[in-house]
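Ticket reopened. Same input as before:
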Amino acid sequence: MSETKQSLAEFLFEAALQKRDPAERSAFLDGVCRDDPALRARLDMLLEGHFQGEGFLGKKPLRAAQPLPARPTLKLAVPEEPPDEAIGTHIGRYKLLEKVGEGGCGVVYVAEQTEPVRRRVALKVIKLGMDTKQVVARFEAERQALAMMDHPNIAKVLDAGTTGEGESPIYNLQSPISPGRPYFVMELVRGIKITDYCDQANLSTKARLDLFIKICQAIQHAHQKGIIHRDIKPSNILVTLHDGVPVPKVIDFGIAKATEGRLTDNTVYTQLHQFIGTPAYMSPEQAEMSGLDIDTRSDIYSLGVLLYELLAGSTPFDAKELMSQGIDAMRKTIREKEPMRPSTRLAALGADELTTTAKQRSVETSKLMHQLKGDLDWIVMKCLEKDRARRYDTANGLAMDIQRHLSCEPVLARPPAGFMSFKRRCDVTSSALPPRQRLSFCWRSASR
Amino acid sequence: MSEVTHILDRVQQGDPKAAEELLPLVYEELRKLAAARMANEPPGQTLQATALVHEAWLRLTGNAAQEWNSRGHFFAAAAEAMRRILVDRARKKARQRHGGQLERVDLEHVTIATEDSDDTVLAIHEAIEKLARESAQQAEIVKLRYFAGLEHAEIADALGISEATVRRHWTYARSWLYAELKSSLTR
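Engineering reply: fixed in the latest deploy. New output:
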């Protein structure tokens, strides 16, 4: 068939399908194909194929409970899409300076704002070619999620908009950014990921716990606003310095989910995003991908993995090992294998690694083991329980148990035997001594 | 950095030759994986196309390439590789069975390459080749669906077009294939 005839057939095919009533359709085809019986025969066959039902390429492809391939963006068959030469141009009143990141559906730039104040910000815009309804909805959801939060340890949303709207015409002419793409502006967090910061600054265990408590508080805030992060990992938590004081900031709520309110999201996609990115931080229920409703306790698990890494220098399941196993084995491991306790993990390290790990915590190797054994071991393992009902209920609960440990009070994570007598002791000591004294007693005394 | 990741980086940077180099590596990996799966599974078990593609991704890149563009290239190459693997396999089996003569395709039961009979796979394959001469994009959509098992939304993301466009093309392409196969049976 020649080129023009093919597109004609396609055009008529679609037009014929618009006619719901078979009689109307037949009449339509009679009219347009009056002089061309071959075309009519062709269209009849095409329509027969269309209405054939599930039998011919109609059924959805069979899947086991396997993760779907990630959603890629490919400019393969669409040559008319221009390359995204955005640097130096404007989106709204923001001038794009430097591309700093790329996620599932968005690209992040450092941008400069001139009005009403001059400052640098982070601008996230939805990717070219990804403006399907679903992706836009997901992008909007992320913006909403961030806008609802107001916490010193969560990156703030400053502004939002759609490219090409409400802009000065001059900007429009200069900009190769195609219009109609949603974007939002966040505070620029210049920092490094928390694990790197702690290691480079040789932060002690106590100092790491202090930072971690702040992160718990941030996640608690999100949970209270009805947001589950679902992708807590070191690269999403940056540490920046304010007057020499390290401040952790949670960024990238890219696959966060609102517990209520309208939020369209392809669950499998978001779970797969993590498989592709960081399976080591994925909770057992996420790894199962059975459609089980993921709740805030999944974030508690991921916080547990983070704590594990901050304390012992590696994640409970080695990331490389996980990925070398293939998907099925990976999911099984996360769902079923019991990880080693942090102190046991340390004990299993080679001498060199152990020395490095201890050095990064400004402590001798024997002392490090001692610090983790007991309370901290139990706190971490409680976060990592396969049965989510056995984990901490809230991020705050986790933070408070760590606080108790730092105050030498009995922690809830301890095995149940003898718990009641411990609790009674706790009530006595908490009223007896002011907090600061207890703290210094704990961390200077040799017995700990 | 793995070889594939290296190539994907070059694709990202706009190296026109890089994408071609991807295919043989992806092909080789998928072929090994498919063979291993077939050897371990009881007879009659189907290969899960998307699982294979995904596993190839993990093995070849170690998950290193985080760019979504890169993955798009990878999965397009993977779909092409899957097509070659399955078509080759089907051809070999068809030759063994009846000296190369193709059986009639049962138009009532065509789902996806990893589940269809060899003769069906070959027939669909020939039909897609023909479709490609009329519309490259439609053929690509069919290929991604039939050989790699991707859903509409995933195909949309892979090709950088809207899901609505994918559905529209798929509706027509599916009918086109039906018409093509039906008319070839009566020739």
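Residues 205-224 of chain A form the longest helix (20 residues). Residues 192-444 of chain A form a domain with the Transferase(Phosphotransferase); domain 1 fold (CATH 1.10.510.10). Please confirm and we'll close it.
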